[in-house]
Amino acid sequence: MMKLKAILIHVFLSLALLTSLSHSQHMSSLPLATPSGELRPPFSQTINLATSNNETLLSHVMEVDIQIDFTVKVTSTFVLANNNSYPISNFLLTINMTIFSVFCSDPLGPLDFQWMVAPEFGNLINISMRFPLLSNNIYVFSVTYVIDHIIYHNEGSLDYYGLDFEVTHPRNTETFVLDLSLPVYATIVKDAPFEPIFPSANKIYKENEVVTVEWQLDQRIANETDIFLVRFAFGVENTGNNFPYNALFYPLTVLFSLLVGGAIVFLVLHFRNKPVEKELVTALLTNTEQEIIKAINADGGISTQRRICEKTGYSKSKVSQILTKLEEKKVLKRERWGRTNKVTITNSSMRQLGMLESK
Asked: Peptide bond before 199: cis, by omega within 30 degrees of 0?
């Protein structure tokens, strides 16, 4: 990876030198709104979105860092190839999330950019290249921004944090790499009845108490969307001053075992002659409603509408109708989540539905 970056930087610097001798810096200013909120004329009067059809990303490396305050810092590094017959001076990027603190740069330093927030596009960022990108040449640059209110916390029987991250590819992309780093001392959820990572990662490694999950996807199509899920929890930091805890460990372990054993005996006796709660719950639901709830519980009680369609095989319209009925029954709630909906089980009696069968 370091060798690749060095080669790309060398290519970029050579290109910058050549273009500086043959071209003056050119920029088509877009009539957008600045980050401070200063409004300008509508951008649709001057932007030709069709120009991106002949632009290809040879590589898109996205580094997603979950901070200790649960904000998410994203840095996308693009290697852009110009397949047009003419130079291009700008790169248009749409981000359909609530973001702040945008910064654009290339290997030589910061880049000029314009940033507009519009309901129909989300965040529209127009990045001015340092030099016009000639036909059949490449350009390396990065965009960094911060996302807030995207990490959720599940406080049920299994306490964990989650991130459902949606990526819409801005151009046809030959290689896409997502490196997602958890907060320090956080670990992937283990022994859970659902998948803590989706899709399967190419690599998971730990460095300086930070766990990083890496995915690599090839030949992504422009405007195609991929969703990545990760569930994590926090361990206890070992400070080294643990002698009192070691001295009490075995007595506390014995006491805890006795309490757990007593609780199990109580529950067995208490529920021996009572109807199984599962039968009471499922009697109120149709088979298709049960399948939907089981699919959500398989993801830890929180999923996305698109993922429910994939897991059940039901159509989008059918899933939408069933979710509406379950919302009316106060079983779950839906929230807008990028281009799909996040679905959360709110009725505690429904959280175990499907778990017993999977064990």
From this structure: yes
